Amino acid sequence: MTFQVEFQAVVLAAGKGSRISEITTTKPKCLLPVGPMPLVWYPLYKLEQAGFTDVILVILEHQKSEIQSALEKTGIEIRIEYATIAENEELGTADSLRMLYDRLKSDVMVVSCDFVSDVDLHGLFNLFRMHDASIASLLLHPQQSEASVVPGPKSKHKMERDLIAIDQQTSRLVFLASASDFESELTLPRSLLKKHTNIKMYSNLIDSHIYLLKKWVIKYLKSEDSFSSIKGELIPHIVKKQLSKPPKTAEPRESIVSPKDSGDIFAYAKEDDLDLAIREASAYNDHIGDLKPAYHQDTIRCYAYVAPKDTFGARVNTLMNYWSVSGKIIDHWEKITDGKELVLKHPDATICSTQVDNKCVIWDGVNLKEKTSFKNCVIATNTEVNSFSRIFNSIVMNNVTIKEKVAIENCIICDGAIIENGCKLKGCIVGSYHTVEEDSEHTSEVLTESDRLMEF
């Protein structure tokens, strides 16, 4: 006998990192080094901690071998089933989920590959189960900002904000939209305010892009190909539908033109008759203040789980966030991994330097020559640093060659770059496979392969 699992996990890692293209031009975003592990390891390990034994990882087809090889080296135990997308296909997150329809047999947890946090996911699961939710979303309080200079040209980093309304009594998510959609005023429907009398509007919560979705939501998504984004389109649509009531007859209709279902959303959001009978027979109610029955008889119910304020968590979806999370990962490692051993110096690294502080992470295959100095930096796979060079507060990615008498401070050096003798770099981003000329000096620049500066 086989038993259906309660949840299936999907990690979305097919994004091209367009917001941080300075460092992802030739590298999968999900493999950016964050401390001792590639970025995608963190959500995968988080799912492993939560009890998942299997996960579907959505990636681009041409990056599969590179990602697979990188993950095999991490020792991750969760079984990974790869779902690939052709490089020339432009699929949004909702499109990717729709593509997996035939593989998804139960309720689904959707996770972004750029999520790094020490949050306990059981609070989200419990909220979803308790109310038999249609959708439950994980939200984070913003991290305390610390003064740090992000590599590259000086620019103002504008934070994207969402407007999120949550019923404080029930944790119902009753409104979700981007703040940029409203110029100066926001008017909530009177019916919403009458129904949910204890609403609090937030403008600073961070959507973690972790969602629990009822199986019927996946069926509905399959039938409606107009949705491209989960966060930008599908979730706000379903949140809004909570205010509606089902028509007297809400059955999926088989289209004569197309074989797909084209019925109303309430045809998919049906509740089990036994569950309804039990609820009607009980004295339970999710709210107080009126005589309405539990959940106001809503068949569509969306919830928000707001993590405790002391939770460390962020999405590595901007250069500023990547730099910030990378700088904090060692301090938060124990809570993020629930005590997993932190290997600062990989046993396969050759370290001849005597000046490597305890804030440095040295990956496999690295060769650090004598008379070199390192403070608070990540040196990734197969990088070589030659004598009389120093690297402070920087991230150096794979297969980088740093020649002699080089000084690097507050920089990001991308895959395959070559830093020639005598260079001095401060606050710079060096693009993949770019060669920095001998004895050159650069400050707060983006140096690209074409030897041109990229403007933000």
Automatic annotation (TrEMBL):
Keywords of this entry: Cytoplasm, Initiation factor, Protein biosynthesis
GO MF annotations, alphabetized: guanyl-nucleotide exchange factor activity; translation initiation factor activity
Cellular location(s): Cytoplasm, Cytosol
UniProt domain Mannose-1-phosphate guanyltransferase C-terminal: residue ranges: 343-441
Database matches in InterPro entries: eIF2B_gamma (IPR051960), GMPPB_C (IPR056729), NTP_transferase_dom (IPR005835), Nucleotide-diphossugar_trans (IPR029044)
Pfam families noted in UniProt: GMPPB_C, NTP_transferase
Annotated signal peptide: none
Domain Nucleotidyl transferase: 9-144
Protein purpose: Acts as a component of the translation initiation factor 2B (eIF2B) complex, which catalyzes the exchange of GDP for GTP on the eukaryotic initiation factor 2 (eIF2) complex gamma subunit. Its guanine nucleotide exchange factor activity is repressed when bound to eIF2 complex phosphorylated on the alpha subunit, thereby limiting the amount of methionyl-initiator methionine tRNA available to the ribosome and consequently global translation is repressed.
Subunit structure: Component of the translation initiation factor 2B (eIF2B) complex which is a heterodecamer of two sets of five different subunits: alpha, beta, gamma, delta and epsilon. Subunits alpha, beta and delta comprise a regulatory subcomplex and subunits epsilon and gamma comprise a catalytic subcomplex. Within the complex, the hexameric regulatory complex resides at the center, with the two heterodimeric catalytic subcomplexes bound on opposite sides.
Record-given protein name: Translation initiation factor eIF2B subunit gamma
Protein species of origin: Callosobruchus maculatus (Southern cowpea weevil)
